[in-house]
Structure formats: structure tokens, C-alpha cells
Amino acid sequence: PPSKLLPSDGHPHHPWVADHNAFWPHDEQFVDEAERRAAITAYHALCSWVDHNVGRVLDALQKTGLVETTRVIYTSDHGDNVGARGLWGKSNLYQESTAIPMLIAGPDVEKSVCRTPISLVDLFPTILDSAGLGFDSEMEERPGRSLHSLAAAADEPERPAFSEYHAVGSNAGGYMLRKGRWKLHYYVGYPPELFDLENDPEETSDLAANADHSAVLDRMEAELRQICDPEAMDGLAKKDQAALVTRHGGRGNAINVGAPGATPPPSPAKVS
Questions:
Q1: Any idea what DSSP says for residue 24?
Q2: pLDDT digits 0-9 by tens, 183-199
Q3: Do 71 and 130 meet the contact criterion of CB atoms below 8 Å apart?
Q4: Distance separating alpha carbons of residues 260 and 98, to the nearest angstrom
Q5: Which segments of 206-248 does DSSP mark as H helices, in order?
Q6: Contact 173, 224 (CB under 8 A)
Q7: Residue 186: which of 206, 167, 205, 201 has the closest Cα?
Q8: Which residue has the higher pLDDT, 21 or 261?
Q9: Please, is 116 exposed, middle or buried when counting C-beta atoms within 10 Å of its C-beta (0-12, 13-18, 19+)?
Q10: CB contact set of 145 (below 8 Å; sequence gap of 6+)
């Protein structure tokens, strides 16, 4: 399908997103629409390749007789924009980036769909639970809950889901809180975004500046501040990042530290 909410079609980026995208404007690097469509095709091919290899793992469990004693969790650390909103990759708070698959199966897992919002912090107690390990007092204070207990309980649609971003290309911390039908994007130093996922699951209409939703916006921000102080955490992230740059001898040195983000392609001379 065609990409939605493209700036070229008159849908400007939110200022925080625009500043982040300016750091690495992927969509502008395509030479034409054919190349852009090829990139979308390639992404879906990657998904198919992952599915193929998951199948190989599950086949191996079957062949080795372990399928009846093994729980399997299929998930991801993030989604991908794949051209939606003229964005590629992740690094923002929209559903394309933050929504992930979370499938769990096993001999003692009932087939069903759980409508309770979950997040990656729930994997920690899930893995301990699967291994038959208990929780000490420190673990009990952590925000995650076992997916097994969540799936067995009644749905909790109002359970909050939280995410934050301070990394590559961001001038300021970005925070996401989803609770029930509402989803808040809070950006330090930028205007917020508010979406009604019940009536607008594609997040096409930002309601943050709508006076009719000011009470919802205030309530969602208050809920967010129950989890963290966005400004304080933004300051802490920048302080830690500055210390890391200093430890590497300054920006000039730090910018060249680390492995590349992908496997280097072979040179033509090495291709047989």
C-alpha cells in the first residue's frame, strides 16, 4: 500500500520528529519512487527471511523432541516506519516504531489473544517464571509482570505502556505513554502529541492542541510523571552522554568510536 502522511502530500512532521529526521533524512536519499518502493519490498523480504529462520528453529525443536517441554517467545525490540510519514527505521514514538509483536507458545500456553498492553520489561519476569524461579523483594518492585500471569488474568486495557528515547539524532528526550484509548508523546522543550487510538489507530490526528481534550492531555501527563520526571531524565541522559564523549577524548574522537551499524559489503574484487 502507499505510504501514509507524507510531508510531500502536505503532512508536515512534528517539530521534534522534523529535527530528528534532519539528522538522517533517509527518505530524501532515494533517487526516485521506484527505489523507494524497492526499499519497502526489501523490508518485507527481510521479514519473510526472519519468518523462514524462525521456522527452522521450531522445526529443530520438533525433530529433537523438545517441543513439548519448551516455551517460545517471538518479539522484537522495535518496529519500523518503512516510509510511513516519510520516515524510515525507528527512533520515534509512533505505533509503526513502538508497536512490536509479542507471541508466546508452549505446551502449557492456552491459545488466545491477550488484550492487556504489554512491553519488553515484561520479558524479565516471564523468563524467570518460565524457569520456575521466584522473585525477591527487589524484583517485586520492578514494573514488569510475567506474560503467563497476564494472559491468564482478565484483560487490563488501562494498563500503561511506556517508552522513551534519548539516542541517535534526538535533541531532547521523547516519552510515550499509552493508557487505554489514549497515547501521549511528551517531548522535552517541544509541544506534545495526543492520539485517540480507539478512533484513530493510525495516529493521523494530533489532539494535543484541541481544547476539548485538554483534560485528557493533563491527565496523561500526570500519569507520565508518576513514572518519571521527563526533564530530569533528559538532563541525566545528556550529562551521561557528555561524560562519555569526554572519556573518549572529545567529540572528534568519540564520533569515530564503535563498530559500523551494518556488515560491510564485500569489495568487487572479493566477489566470486
A1: S
A2: 999 999 999 999 999 99
A3: yes
A4: 24
A5: 214-227, 230-247
A6: no
A7: 206
A8: 21
A9: middle
A10: 122, 125
